[in-house]
Design brief:
The protein has 199 residues and is mainly alpha-helical. The protein folds into 2 domains: 2-52, no CATH class; 66-198, no CATH class. It has 8 helices and no strands. The termini are far apart.
Length: 199
């Protein structure tokens, strides 16, 4: 550990700046300017260079970029699909879940859509939240609540809540798809204007 600190200092900006100023002190010594006090001049210039050098800046954390995050969301989406296949849902709700997952799957498919999506971290977060939190929680809460409802008939059916939750999640996914489409439409319009201005 001490060796790595020494090596770190040898490569530091402070040492490099100090060494450069120290070399200047040696040049002054050889030209006769420093005289008999050359060790003090060289050491002083080294110290001055080390003091004026900018401090070391730690490297920023290396977080995965949005395209790498999309890859992780795709893996979790596959796990979600396995989970949903094992859940017992009424046919109408099964259809709603399938429609939602097909839309999310289309957004997550590798290709140009994912490339556009990766440029919008907020959209990646929205997809991630839907896949990792919103859909599993909605379905799991439905399954648990339905079990309790069978014990206490006459209460509000949990199917209504899950249907509403799936509707809201689908609207959110459709809004996301619409925003991506608008981004591409603006890009196309910009290119058209560029070609018109060029000619």
């Amino acid at each position: 550990m001490a060796t790595s600190k020494v090596l770190g200092y040898l490569e530091s900006r402070k040492n490099l700046a100090g060494g450069t100023c120290g070399l200047l002190g040696l040049v002054l010594t050889f030209t006769g300017v420093a005289g008999p006090y050359w060790p003090v001049v060289v050491a002083g210039l080294y110290g001055a260079g080390a003091l004026i050098a900018p401090p070391e800046r730690p490297a920023p954390p290396d977080f995965p970029d949005p395209s790498a995050q999309l890859g992780a969301v795709r893996k979790d989406f596959a796990k979600l699909g396995t989970y949903l296949a094992d859940v017992d849902l009424p046919p109408a709700l099964r259809t709603r879940v399938t429609e939602l997952t097909e839309l999310l799957g289309a957004l997550l498919d590798p290709g140009w859509v994912a490339e556009v999506l990766a440029q919008d971290p907020e959209a990646v977060h929205t997809l991630s939240r839907a896949v990792r939190q919103d859909i599993p929680e909605a379905v799991d809460t439905f399954v648990r609540t339905r079990w309790w409802t069978r014990l206490t008939p006459g209460t509000e059916p949990p199917e209504q809540h899950l249907d509403r939750q799936l509707t809201l999640l689908r609207e959110e996914a459709e809004h996301l798809a619409s925003a991506l489409r608008d981004t591409e439409a603006r890009r196309q319009e910009t290119h058209t204007r560029y070609l018109e201005d060029r000619s």
